[in-house]
Specification:
This protein has about 240 residues and is an alpha/beta fold. The chain has a seven-stranded mixed beta sheet. It is globular and about 50 Å long. It starts with a strand and ends with a helix.
Length: about 240
Amino acid sequence: MQRLTLFDLDDTLLDGDCSEQWNWKMIDLGWIDNSEQFLAATQNMQEAYHAGKLKLETYLETTLEPLKGRYVDDVAACATDFVARHVMPRMFAQARETIEAHRVEGDTLVIISASSKHLVGPIAAALGVPHVIAVEPTVLEGRYTGATTGVLSYRSGKVTRFQQWKEQQGLGMLYTTFYSDSRNDVPLLNAVNKPVAVNPDPVLAEIAEKEGWQRLDWRENADQKQALYASSIKS
């Protein structure tokens, strides 16, 4: 049976949230008119996400608005630089090792994330992960519209998007593993053969213990990762 391994991104492979860090990058780029108001709004929504109460549509309306009218290629150039400087230094060493272990085993590797594909795509490429399921920003005549298309890869939407992706790939019977940190991913964790809780939030930790799911804690090197991130910002 073919083996397929799914990875959540933020707070699972990455020590932090790529969208949150990108918000700061957009401020640095001058893409945000009222940075104080923008940061306050996005911070409140991040807290709602971790509490399992976020309406993702609202967050995306706010965070994709600065991309509206910008050329895809221009955003891609900024995102690629951002990923190299400010995201990759925050990858857990254990995450890299786990990805490589599954690669050696011959697993099909997929990152599935509720972040936007303009960020998840270059991160997956940098990690050598060939498949991405993420929020799809709408593009018209080579420019972002500020909207999204299709089912959002969030909560039960991740299950839907995964099923759609499998059909598009023509995949049959699979043995599936999924690594995630969040209560928001419980629907997909319940849908795979092997759910793994990584740096789990309190709700997921409780569910994982009750269900007997494997648990991994990769934050032991968080201080070192933060130092690397701080040095990357200065470079």
